[in-house]
Each structure stands twice: as C-alpha cells, then as structure tokens.
TrEMBL record:
Ranges that cross the membrane: 12-33, 53-78, 99-117, 369-389, 396-414, 426-446
Highest taxon listed in the record's lineage: Bacteria
Compartments, as annotated in UniProt: Cell membrane
Originating species: Pontibacter populi
Membrane topology: Multi-pass membrane protein
Record key words, sorted: Cell membrane, Membrane, Transmembrane, Transmembrane helix
Record-given protein name: LptF/LptG family permease
InterPro entries: LptG/LptF_permease
Length: 472
C-alpha cells in the first residue's frame, strides 16, 4: 500500500467511526422511543435494558452504515478539497478515480462484510431482542401506591392507603379487600396504621398492620352483596400479611416461539418459507374452479380442462333442464349470485393474503442484498460530491447526507410497498432506489473528474453543440 493510500484511508477511518457511532445512536434513540412507555417503571435493572439496547443496536447497524459511509466520504474528500490537498494530488498526475480507489476498496469490503453480518448475525440479534422486549412488555410495573386510591397490582387484592408517612414505609388508614377466596369482598381488612417493607431478597411485600379489624363474610351468597350478608369481625392489635412479588419478575419466554417471524431468519430459511407460500397460493388458484362449482345448480363445469390446439378449454354443460322463469326462480338466482360473489371475494382475499405474505418474506431476502449494495452507492454519491463542493466538517456534508438519505429511504419504502402489493416484481421494487441513485453518483463522478461545478453540465452542452452543427 502506497503512502497516498494510507493517507486517504486514515483520513476516512476517523470520520467513519465517528459518524457511524452518531448515526447509530440517533437511530437507536428514535427506535426505542416507540417503546419508552412500556419500558419505564418496571425496575428491571440496567443489565436488562443494556442487553436490549445492545441487540437493537445490532439491528440498526445495516441501516446506519450507508448514511455513515455517505457522510464520512463527504467529510473526507471535502476536507481534502478544502485544504487544497486534493488539488495538489491531482497536479502530481494522479487522477480522481485513483484517489477514490483505496476508500472504494475499503467500502466494497465493508459492503460484503455487512451482507454476511446482516444475514447471519442480525436475525439472531432480532430473535433475542424481540423476545426480550415481549417479556419486558408483559412484566408488571413496580408497585406504586398512591394516597387515597386503590391499588390492584397484586393478584387477588385491592389495597387503599390514605396516608404515607415519610420514606420509612409508615402508613395510616389502610383498607384491604381480599378476593383470593372468590366472591364479592368476602374478606375486608381495616387498620389504623402500619408499616410496609419487602423481605426475602425483595421477593415478598410485607404489610405489618396495627389496631384493626378483619371482616369475614359468612353468607353463602358469593355472587352479590345484600343487606342480609353476615360478617364476622376479628379485632387485632398487630397482624402481618405477606404478598408474593413473583408476578413482577421478568420471566423469559422460549425464543423458539418467535422464530417464525421473517426478521429472525436468514436467506436460506426465508427461501424455504417463500417457496412454500408461493406453492400454496398457486394451489389455491388451481382449486378455485372446483370449489366454486357446487354453487351452480344447473351449469356444471368440466374441471379437467380439455386441451384443444394447445390451449386449455373449460367445457360447460347443462346438468339438468332449466325451470320456467318466474318470481321464485329469479329470487333463487339472485341469492345464488350473492353467494357466489361473497365466496369469490373471500377466496380472492385469502389468495391475495398468501401472496402478500410470500412477498413479505421475499422482500426480506432482497433487503439483505440492497442494504449492503446501498453502502457502495452512497460512497459513489458522497466521495465525488465532496470533491466537488470542497467543504469538510459537519456543516454542509450533514445537510447533503440527510437529503440523499431521505431520498434513498423514501424510494426504498415506496419500492417495498409496491412490491408487497404486487404492483412491481419484488426484485424490481427492492432494487429501484439503488438503481435510481447509481446514475446520480456516476454523474457526480463525471463532474468531479472533469473539475466541473455541481450544476455545470458539459456533457449536455457538447451534445447540443453537435446537434446544432448538424442542423438537427
């Protein structure tokens, strides 16, 4: 490796690491904000949230890499142009493609590594991330007793504390409804004061109550309370009640339950599911005629499809004589037509749903390729554009990078949506964004190679001059 290559690579690596970390942080923060309300207040510890953030950061890496490459290449070659280093290299006889080559090789290797990372590592991280997120969402929030309000977070109990005294756990005027034995408030506990604390490594909540009464319903009527209900009162000076806090613990679900999702599979597994769904949709289409045939009372269809002249001919014949047309016949025909229409609509919707599901899995396959290819595409846009505008730092490059990233993101979303709905073939829809941006990158490369400004189009000017010369 020559000294020039080492200089350019070192100039690129630093901004790339910095921009990748910043972009990863921004994308991860934006993604986790969707689940913020379901994560706070559950007292699961920093290790659980750290594990969740780590897995989701792996999930965000394929999205962050193209933007990081675009921004860092803009900064690198913009800084070289701003400090006239790019001009000095060109005057020594080195062409622009040669200047771009070391970083292009690095980005190409990075794109290949990103593909294998996206195919082998990301699905496993997604499986762990979403299974952990599911368990966190199912975990109850930590206990929050509010003064004067009933708390129903403990299974089988409704607890009301009218007053909290300081941070030592002292409480006053406690009311507890015990529903563990069934019935309607069959056991009620009232206490003048008490103390609340946890015990046995925070696995149990202990309520130590003072000067109270326990009312037990002795009536056989457990469905509703009436004026004839009889309560037995038991007075106490001191009583302890222990509540298990096992329902507040994070219980892990088996990861195999989430493995059927498309985000948890690699390309080989996605291909198997896609082929199965495609075959299923084709079989459903082939069975439509035989399924709709029983709805016809007089016209029967020969589903064998006799071939005449190389084309399948569906023969129809009368199964029995048609009755005379009268009011009852018309009503019956109208009802039959409605039944056929309803059956056909539901059948088509079922087939289309299967096709959309197959498209979803195929989209996930092509996404692993397109996300890796977009890294190279973003370099083809960022490096020549940086050489043209000759601006480094985090000012103009950030604005331009965000603009092109939004364009790529919008085109990707549109192509994915059209591919899912069957408006475009899935490969066309998924590669559309890269196919549109590649000519833009090649145009910037052409302009930078000829030392032209961004909007100076010598190529078209030459074509127009030649057309005028030929009187066209």
């Amino acid at each position: 490796m020559k000294k020039l290559d080492k200089l350019i690579i070192r100039s690129f690596i630093g901004p790339f690491i910095l921009t990748f970390a910043v972009v990863e942080f921004i994308l991860l923060t934006q993604y986790m904000l969707k689940y913020l309300d379901e994560l706070v207040g559950k007292d699961l510890g920093a290790s659980v949230f750290g594990e969740l953030l780590f897995y989701f950061s792996i999930n965000m890496a394929p999205v962050a890499l193209p933007l990081a490459v675009l921004l860092s290449s803009l900064m690198t070659y913009g800084t070289l142009g701003e400090h006239h280093e790019l001009t000095a290299i060109k005057t020594s006889g080195v062409a622009l493609p040669r200047i771009l080559r070391p970083v292009f090789i690095f980005v190409a290797v990075l794109g290949i590594a990103a593909f294998f990372f996206n195919n082998n590592i990301v699905p496993k991280a997604n499986l762990k991330a979403y299974s952990l997120l599911w368990d966190i969402r199912q975990t109850k929030p930590t206990m929050n007793f509010k003064e004067g309000a009933f708390y129903n977070g403990l299974p089988g109990y409704s607890i009301k504390i009218n007053e909290k005294l300081g941070d030592g756990g002292s409480i006053r005027d406690v009311m507890i409804y015990d529903h563990t034995q069934g019935g309607n408030n069959s056991r009620i506990i009232l206490a003048d004061s008490g103390r609340m604390f946890t015990d046995h490594n925070d696995n149990y909540l202990v309520l130590e109550l003072f000067d109270g009464n326990i009312y037990v319903n002795q009536s056989n009527n457990t469905l509703q309370s009436t004026s004839e209900d009889q309560f037995v009162r038991q007075r106490f000076k001191e009583s302890k009640i222990m509540f298990s806090l096992s329902s507040f613990d994070l219980s892990r679900t088996r990861e195999e339950y989430f493995s059927d999702n498309k985000m948890m599979k690699n390309i080989a597994e996605l291909n198997v599911v896609t082929d199965s769904l495609t075959d299923l949709s084709q079989k459903e289409r082939d069975k439509f005629i035989s399924n709709v045939d029983p709805f016809y009372m007089y016209m029967k269809v020969d589903s064998t499809r006799t071939k005449v002249g190389g084309q399948a001919i569906i023969r129809k014949e009368l199964d029995k004589e048609l009755p005379a047309v009268n009011a009852s016949t018309l009503v019956m025909a109208k009802n039959k037509a409605r039944n056929i229409k309803s059956f056909t609509s539901s059948y088509i919707e079922r087939v289309n749903s299967t096709v959309r599901e197959a498209n979803n899995f195929e989209i996930e396959i092509w996404k692993k390729y397109t996300q890796s290819a977009s890294i190279i595409v973003m370099f083809l846009i960022g490096a020549p554009l940086g050489a043209i505008i000759k601006k480094g730092g985090l000012g103009v490059p950030v604005i331009i990078s965000i603009l092109f990233f939004i364009i790529m993101y919008v085109l990707s979303i549109l192509g994915e949506k059209w591919a899912r709905e069957g408006l475009l073939p899935v490969p066309v829809g998924m590669w559309a964004s890269n196919a549109i941006l590649v000519p833009i990158g090649l145009f910037f490369l052409y302009q930078a190679r000829n030392d032209s400004s961004l909007l100076e189009i010598d190529f078209w000017r030459k074509i127009l001059t030649r057309l005028k010369r030929n009187k066209l």
